[in-house]
Protein backbone atom coordinates (compact mmCIF):
# COMPACT_ATOMS: atom_id res chain seq x y z
CA UNK A 1 0.00 0.00 0.00
CA UNK A 2 2.77 2.46 0.95
CA UNK A 3 4.71 1.53 -2.17
CA UNK A 4 1.66 2.27 -4.31
CA UNK A 5 1.27 5.68 -2.66
CA UNK A 6 4.94 6.44 -3.21
CA UNK A 7 4.65 5.27 -6.81
CA UNK A 8 1.78 7.68 -7.43
CA UNK A 9 3.62 10.62 -5.86
CA UNK A 10 7.21 10.35 -7.08
CA UNK A 11 7.41 14.03 -8.06
CA UNK A 12 6.00 15.25 -4.73
CA UNK A 13 8.26 12.92 -2.76
CA UNK A 14 11.22 14.12 -4.81
CA UNK A 15 10.36 17.72 -3.95
CA UNK A 16 9.96 17.04 -0.23
CA UNK A 17 13.16 15.01 0.02
CA UNK A 18 15.05 17.65 -1.96
CA UNK A 19 13.88 20.50 0.28
CA UNK A 20 14.72 18.56 3.46
CA UNK A 21 18.13 17.54 2.12
CA UNK A 22 19.06 21.03 0.95
CA UNK A 23 17.85 22.53 4.23
CA UNK A 24 20.19 20.19 6.10
CA UNK A 25 23.10 20.96 3.78
CA UNK A 26 22.65 24.72 3.86
CA UNK A 27 21.91 24.63 7.58
CA UNK A 28 25.24 22.92 8.23
CA UNK A 29 27.26 25.02 5.79
CA UNK A 30 25.78 28.32 6.96
CA UNK A 31 26.18 27.45 10.64
CA UNK A 32 22.46 27.22 11.41
CA UNK A 33 22.90 23.81 13.03
CA UNK A 34 24.50 24.37 16.45
CA UNK A 35 27.65 22.30 16.85
CA UNK A 36 26.74 21.75 20.51
CA UNK A 37 24.04 19.29 19.37
CA UNK A 38 26.62 17.01 17.77
CA UNK A 39 29.17 14.87 19.60
CA UNK A 40 32.67 16.05 18.78
CA UNK A 41 35.22 13.60 17.41
CA UNK A 42 38.92 13.94 18.04
CA UNK A 43 40.98 16.36 15.98
CA UNK A 44 42.63 13.40 14.23
CA UNK A 45 39.25 12.08 13.09
CA UNK A 46 38.12 15.52 11.91
CA UNK A 47 41.42 16.02 10.07
CA UNK A 48 41.02 12.62 8.36
CA UNK A 49 37.53 13.33 6.97
CA UNK A 50 38.63 15.25 3.83
CA UNK A 51 41.04 12.45 2.92
CA UNK A 52 38.44 9.75 3.54
CA UNK A 53 35.95 11.74 1.46
CA UNK A 54 38.42 11.95 -1.43
CA UNK A 55 38.69 8.16 -1.40
CA UNK A 56 34.89 7.83 -1.15
CA UNK A 57 34.50 10.22 -4.10
CA UNK A 58 36.99 8.27 -6.18
CA UNK A 59 35.16 5.00 -5.50
CA UNK A 60 31.86 6.72 -6.35
CA UNK A 61 33.26 7.80 -9.70
CA UNK A 62 34.16 4.17 -10.35
CA UNK A 63 30.76 2.81 -9.33
CA UNK A 64 28.89 5.38 -11.42
CA UNK A 65 30.99 4.56 -14.49
CA UNK A 66 30.48 0.83 -13.85
CA UNK A 67 26.73 1.36 -13.42
CA UNK A 68 26.49 3.18 -16.74
CA UNK A 69 28.51 0.47 -18.48
CA UNK A 70 26.35 -2.30 -17.00
CA UNK A 71 23.09 -0.73 -18.15
CA UNK A 72 24.51 -0.18 -21.64
CA UNK A 73 25.20 -3.93 -21.71
CA UNK A 74 21.65 -4.61 -20.52
CA UNK A 75 22.68 -5.93 -17.11
CA UNK A 76 20.00 -4.28 -14.98
CA UNK A 77 20.92 -6.17 -11.80
CA UNK A 78 24.55 -5.04 -11.82
CA UNK A 79 23.49 -1.53 -12.86
CA UNK A 80 21.15 -1.31 -9.88
CA UNK A 81 23.84 -2.64 -7.53
CA UNK A 82 26.38 -0.08 -8.75
CA UNK A 83 23.97 2.84 -8.59
CA UNK A 84 22.81 1.92 -5.08
CA UNK A 85 26.47 1.62 -4.08
CA UNK A 86 27.07 5.07 -5.61
CA UNK A 87 24.18 6.43 -3.59
CA UNK A 88 25.55 4.87 -0.39
CA UNK A 89 28.96 6.41 -1.13
CA UNK A 90 27.34 9.79 -1.78
CA UNK A 91 25.44 9.62 1.52
CA UNK A 92 28.64 8.60 3.33
CA UNK A 93 30.48 11.53 1.75
CA UNK A 94 27.73 13.97 2.61
CA UNK A 95 27.33 12.84 6.23
CA UNK A 96 31.07 13.08 6.83
CA UNK A 97 31.33 16.44 5.07
CA UNK A 98 28.38 17.97 6.92
CA UNK A 99 29.64 16.59 10.24
CA UNK A 100 33.04 18.24 9.73
CA UNK A 101 31.61 21.51 8.43
CA UNK A 102 29.15 21.75 11.31
CA UNK A 103 31.95 21.33 13.83
CA UNK A 104 34.84 23.18 12.19
CA UNK A 105 33.40 25.31 9.39
CA UNK A 106 34.48 25.28 5.77
CA UNK A 107 38.16 24.83 4.95
CA UNK A 108 40.09 27.97 4.08
CA UNK A 109 42.00 28.13 0.82
CA UNK A 110 45.66 28.85 1.49
CA UNK A 111 46.90 29.40 -2.04
CA UNK A 112 47.61 32.54 -4.06
CA UNK A 113 44.81 34.99 -4.75
CA UNK A 114 44.95 34.43 -8.52
CA UNK A 115 44.51 30.66 -8.10
CA UNK A 116 41.74 31.30 -5.58
CA UNK A 117 39.83 33.60 -7.94
CA UNK A 118 40.38 31.91 -11.27
CA UNK A 119 40.73 28.21 -10.41
CA UNK A 120 39.53 27.35 -6.91
CA UNK A 121 36.34 29.43 -6.70
CA UNK A 122 35.04 28.56 -10.19
CA UNK A 123 35.79 24.86 -9.62
CA UNK A 124 34.13 24.92 -6.20
CA UNK A 125 31.12 26.85 -7.54
CA UNK A 126 30.54 24.38 -10.39
CA UNK A 127 31.02 21.44 -8.02
CA UNK A 128 28.45 22.86 -5.58
CA UNK A 129 25.99 23.81 -8.31
CA UNK A 130 26.14 20.34 -9.87
CA UNK A 131 25.77 18.69 -6.46
CA UNK A 132 22.66 20.79 -5.78
CA UNK A 133 21.17 20.05 -9.21
CA UNK A 134 21.91 16.33 -8.76
CA UNK A 135 19.91 15.98 -5.55
CA UNK A 136 16.40 16.16 -7.07
CA UNK A 137 17.51 14.18 -10.13
CA UNK A 138 18.91 11.41 -7.94
CA UNK A 139 15.80 11.27 -5.78
CA UNK A 140 13.60 11.19 -8.86
CA UNK A 141 15.38 8.32 -10.63
CA UNK A 142 15.81 6.44 -7.35
CA UNK A 143 12.12 6.72 -6.49
CA UNK A 144 11.12 5.66 -9.99
CA UNK A 145 13.42 2.63 -9.73
CA UNK A 146 12.29 1.64 -6.25
CA UNK A 147 8.56 1.97 -6.89
CA UNK A 148 8.30 0.05 -10.16
CA UNK A 149 9.27 -3.31 -11.56
CA UNK A 150 12.12 -3.15 -14.07
CA UNK A 151 9.77 -3.89 -16.96
CA UNK A 152 7.79 -0.70 -16.21
CA UNK A 153 10.86 1.54 -15.84
CA UNK A 154 11.25 1.64 -19.61
CA UNK A 155 7.89 3.45 -19.78
CA UNK A 156 9.08 6.20 -17.41
CA UNK A 157 11.62 8.99 -17.71
CA UNK A 158 14.08 7.05 -15.52
CA UNK A 159 16.51 6.51 -18.39
CA UNK A 160 16.43 10.12 -19.62
CA UNK A 161 16.84 11.67 -16.16
CA UNK A 162 19.25 8.93 -15.09
CA UNK A 163 21.65 9.79 -17.91
CA UNK A 164 21.69 13.44 -16.90
CA UNK A 165 21.99 12.60 -13.21
CA UNK A 166 24.90 10.20 -13.80
CA UNK A 167 26.79 12.68 -15.97
CA UNK A 168 26.36 15.56 -13.55
CA UNK A 169 27.13 13.32 -10.59
CA UNK A 170 30.39 12.20 -12.21
CA UNK A 171 31.50 15.73 -12.93
CA UNK A 172 30.54 16.88 -9.44
CA UNK A 173 32.54 14.08 -7.78
CA UNK A 174 35.52 14.72 -10.07
CA UNK A 175 35.47 18.46 -9.36
CA UNK A 176 35.16 17.69 -5.65
CA UNK A 177 38.41 15.79 -5.93
CA UNK A 178 40.01 18.74 -7.72
CA UNK A 179 38.90 20.99 -4.84
CA UNK A 180 40.37 18.44 -2.41
CA UNK A 181 43.73 18.45 -4.22
CA UNK A 182 43.81 22.26 -4.25
CA UNK A 183 42.94 22.51 -0.54
CA UNK A 184 44.90 19.66 0.97
CA UNK A 185 47.78 18.88 -1.39
CA UNK A 186 48.76 21.89 -3.46
CA UNK A 187 47.96 24.69 -1.01
From TrEMBL:
- Source taxon at top rank: Archaea
Cross-referenced InterPro entries: DUF420 (IPR007352)
Pfam families, per this entry? DUF420
Task: Could you list this entry's UniProt keywords, alphabetically sorted.
Answer: Membrane, Transmembrane, Transmembrane helix
Positions of transmembrane segments: 12-33, 53-71, 83-99, 119-143, 164-186
Question: Is-annotated flag, keyword Lipid metabolism?
Answer: no
Q: Which protein, by its recorded name, is this?
A: Putative membrane protein
